[in-house]
Amino acid sequence: MGIAFATLALAGVLFGMRQGGVSPFDGQLTVLFAFETVIIGGLGSLWGTLLGGIVLGVAQTIAGQFSPEIPLLIGHLVFLAVLAFRPNGLMGKQALR
């Protein structure tokens, strides 16, 4: 537990140095991307989360090549498309009924 807190503190210090300061609103977009990544990959699947991150990152990178304004929009659209067609995620398991 102590190692986890030390790693977290070090990450916070390095993030603050990289950004030039830290405010309470800095992590909202990062948390949103993390949530979308887990949902795209499927809850309960570590490999699914990795796949979700790759899908989201590739979609945003390709969209960024065409226009700098749309990567965020494309990421959300990919998230919504996965929710519409595969509600359990790309590698999620079916719920037992």
Automatic annotation (TrEMBL):
Protein known as: High-affinity branched-chain amino acid transport system permease protein LivH
Entry-linked PANTHER family: AMINO ACID ABC TRANSPORTER PERMEASE PROTEIN (PTHR11795:SF445), BRANCHED-CHAIN AMINO ACID TRANSPORT SYSTEM PERMEASE PROTEIN LIVH (PTHR11795)
Record lineage: unclassified sequences, metagenomes, ecological metagenomes
Listed GO MF terms: transmembrane transporter activity
GO biological process, one term: amino acid transport
Taxonomic source organism: mine drainage metagenome
Keywords from the named record: Amino-acid transport, Cell membrane, Membrane, Transmembrane, Transmembrane helix, Transport
Residue stretches spanning the membrane: 30-58, 70-87
A Pfam family of this chain: BPD_transp_2
Subcellular location: Cell membrane
Membrane topology: Multi-pass membrane protein
One Gene Ontology cellular component: plasma membrane
Coiled-coil segments: none
Homology family: Belongs to the binding-protein-dependent transport system permease family. LivHM subfamily.
Annotated InterPro entries: ABC_transp_permease, BCAA_transport_permease
Segment forming the signal sequence: none
